Structures are given as C-alpha cells and as structure tokens.
UniProtKB/TrEMBL annotation:
Entry keyword set: Cell membrane, Kinase, Membrane, Phosphoprotein, Transferase, Transmembrane, Transmembrane helix
Coiled-coil ranges (or none): none
Cross-referenced InterPro entries: Bact_2-comp_sensor_kinase, dCache_1, HAMP_dom, HATPase_C_sf, HATPase_dom, Sig_transdc_His_kin_internal
N-terminal signal peptide: none
UniProt name for this protein: Two-component system sensor histidine kinase YesM
Amino acid sequence: MFNGNNFFRSRLGSASPILRRISIKNRLLAAFLITSLLPVLFVAFYSNYKYENSITEKISASTQQVLNELAQNMMRELEQYETLSEAIIINKSIQGALPKFEEMTDFQKNNLRSTLSEELAQQIFRLSNIANVVIFTNEGQPIFDLGFEWYPDIRLDQLTDSVESSSGNASWTYLRTYRGANRIALTRAVYAEDNLNRKLGYIMILIDEKVFSRNTYSHVELGQGSRIYVADKNGFVVSSVAPEIEQGSDYGQNEIFAKLNKEHKNEAFYTQVNDRKTLVVSSYIRSADWELIGLVPHSFLVSELKEMRGNIVFICLLTLMLSGGLAMWIYFSIHSPMRLLLQYANQIRLGQLETKIGNSYPDEMGKLTETIDKMVEQLKLLIFQVESEQQAKRDAELKMLQAQINPHFLFNTLNSLKWSAMMSGNETVRQGIESLSELLRNTILVKEELIPLEMEIDNLLHYATIQRIRYGDSFKLSCAMSDDELYACLVPKFILQPIVENSILHAGNEDGRRVGIRVEGVREGATLKIVIADDGKGFDMNDAQNRKSSSHAKLSGIGIGNVDERIRLHFGAAYGLVTRSAPNEGTETEIKLPILAKEERSDV
C-alpha cells in the first residue's frame, strides 16, 4: 500500500546530501528569501496581471462605446450627402441633358452649365464642407463641375467601377486631387427617371476630408498616444488626423485590418503596430462599408501600474533586507552554540574530559549538549573500567608466568619417565607417557582457541593412544581428509576428542567386538564437513538431547553439547554439529565449519 508520508520523507532524505554541501548560513538565507520574497512577487505579478486585464476590459468597453457613437455621427453626416445626390439625380435638367450631351453645341453646353449652377447652388452650398460636385456622362464627359479640380483619370475609372459592385448605388472612397488635397468621394450612377435600367451617367460629390474629420471625430481623445482613423472595405485609409497614418495608404493592412472580425462583431484585440503593443477597437459604418478604428497604446493602459511597480520593488527590497537580517539572527543562534560544541568536542578528542559547556537551552542544540555530556561521563567510566581490567590482566599475566614453572617441571618429569620406560623395554608405557605429555602440552601451553586441523587430529591420536592403555584393542581409529590442504584449516580446539570419546565409552557391544571409528573430512564449497562415525551399537534418537548434554567425565572436560555451542558462538547458527544414530546401526556425527585459512583468523 502506498504511504505518502514515507514517500515524501524518502524523497526529502535523498535531496538532503545536496543541501548538506551548502553552508547552514546560505541555506537559511535561501530559505528565508524563497519563503518571504516569492509570495510577494507572486502577489505582485498576479495583481499586475489582474489589474491589466481589468483596465483593458474597461477601456476597451468605453472605447467601443465612444467609437459606436462616432460611427452613428458619421452615418448621419454621410446621409446628408446621399440625400443631396438623390435630389441632383432626379433634376429635370440633368435627366434631359445627359442622354444628348454629345449632340449639343458649345453654346448649348455653356447654357446648360449656367442653368445647373443656378438650380443646384442652393442645395450644394447648404453643406459647407462640399469641395466639388461633378456630373459626367457614361463616356466620362463632364456636364457639370463645381470646383474645377483635376483628378487622376485612373482613379475616376476605379470609382465608377466601384459603383457597379456596391450595394444601394453608392460608393464611398478616398480620392486625392492633382494638387494633393484629400477628398472623400461619393460616387453614384444616374439612371433615367422613366427607366431605372437605363444608366445615363455618374455623379460624384467630393467632401473635404479635413472638414469631415473635424465635424465627426477629431475632437475625440481616447488616451495619450491613441489614434482614430477610417478605412474602407479594402483596408485603405479614408480619413485620419494622425500624421503617421496617411490618407490613401494601406496602414496596418496585416497587423490591424486583416485581423478585424469579418462579421463586424467589433471585438477588441491586441497587436503590434510599429513595434508597439496596441489595443485595437473598431466600429462598423454600414452605410459606407467603412471601419472606424481606434488604436490605444498598451503603455497608456498600464501607465498607472508604473507607480505600483515602483512600490513593489521597494517592498521586495524591504522584504529582502528584513529576511536577510532575520536569517542571520537565527543563524547566529545556531552557529554560536554549535561553535562551542565543536570546541568541546576538540577538548574531548585531546583527552580533556573534565571540561563542560555549562548551562544549556531547551532546544535541539541544548539536548545534543546534554547527550554529549552523558557520553563523556560514560566514556570516563569505561576508561576507568579498561584501566582496571588492564591492571588485572597484568596481574594475571604475572601469576601465569609464575605458574609456568610447574608445567615445565611436570613435562620434564614425564619425559624422564618416558625414557625410563623405553630403557626398560615397555613400549606401551612409553607411548602412553609420550602422548600424555604432548596432549598436556597442547592443552596447557597452546593458548589459541583456533588451531590447524592437523594439530587437532594429532591431539585426537594422542588421546587414542592413552585410551588404548586402558581399553586395549577394543576400538580402531582412522583419520583421512579428502584434500591435504584441509589440514591447514583452522578449527576450534578439542572438538573431535569428546565425540570420539563418546564412541569409545558407549559404542562397544557386550560381545566384545572391536568398534571401528573413522574421522573423514571433505570440502563442500566454502564449508568444511567433518564426519565422525562408528559401527557400534548406536542408541535411540529420542534420548539424543539427554546424551548431547550429558556430563560424563572426560579427559578434556568438554561435552558434546559444549562443542556444538562453541562452534555456533564462533561462526554462527549456520554451523555446528548434527548427530544421527539408531540401535544396532552405529552413530554418525557431522560437524560443519567454515573453511578458514590461517591468515584469515583475525577476521573471525
């Protein structure tokens, strides 16, 4: 089952070694800066983001409302010129003159122009910003020209062509005179009054763009750096009061006009205009198929944020200073006791155990100090115990040295008896005394607990020689190893003798048959297996535990249970001895030991 606490604890624990490479002071500074400065920055950036979005929505909405009102004003302005054009189209003189103008004499044409000037003057001059009115035939011959301005022929052709594709027989577009004057042109086709399918010519009313902008939108200010202009359906500028937005140009064709909603839903959006982030708001003028476009620079929208950003910087710097000061204060509250603790540890290392730090505080450092004080007291006690034990050891060594005189006297005496028996020809007594001497020598003088297997087998053979003096040929002992290298393996002293002794004392039958005892050793991987088997009468395994712990008197004073316990204490529970037996089937004891060479002895 997944344990979240353990998982995160293990993750944090794996990251600790990385942090431990950084000093505590720097860790504390980083922790305080992160935990104090990050929230401030997060709140600041989030507030800035929300404020910017909020102010953008509000200014966008208010700008949209302003542009919609301006669009309504423009449509009312344009309706006046369309009404004027309709009145001129149905004029009787124009309806009669257009079909036969080519057939008129120059005198008749002059009279016609004079007549039209008198008839149209009152209607035309009622609108102050009309720059010119031109009426011409289908072939482009003007029958009336109020202002005598010259226009590019190619533009006139484009204007007449645009009438065919416009809805409502009215095309509004931009036109520039040869003298560079900016005009807004309304072009309409003149149809016969009695036959609307018969086109007689065209009428073009030209409005002064400067006067038009002054009357409709130039007085409106959307904000510092903002601009308003009018574009036709193809994206060309019809009217503008901004110097950088030239009339007749395709200003912002890709950045602005291409992104305007084609369904005229008047949705505001941001774009890059002259490498500046700009809010674009538009309103559709349906009667002229124009777009009234307002450009509000992003810098104006966030101008009020500059003061707030300065305050944020000040707050961040203040937080930085306070966090740094608090971190250093806490650092010194840890560093000072830690420095004293390090000095205390150095004094302990130099053996100055009587020094103490003094009063401690109830924090972790204080508890650590108390723990070290207790450790020092325990160390002083252990040192005293070691010194006492060393003194006792030296006393025991002295006594042992004094006691070695008696064994030497004993061995010399036994040696004298051996030579006496040999001189008298008693070979059995000589061998017994020699074996007893060697066995006692290995028992008393050899202090090592682990001895080579070869020495252990020698001790066993000496023991068997001594037992033959008492039991004669009642048993036969044989020893064999599968590999001569096994003789060099180290084994605990006197592990074979108790088992062989058990076979000598208890394996014999009443019929007096000699008991065969064999000792064999083999290598099994890293394990030395020694088998001691006899062909005696055996015993019931139900009594195995009692027999294992029996305390028969033996020459070594070591029981079989003691052998098993010594092996397990030396090498672990995987090693020891196992005895198997059955009545009339003999007894077999298996000893398992690790293969331990002499040079490995120090590792055990």
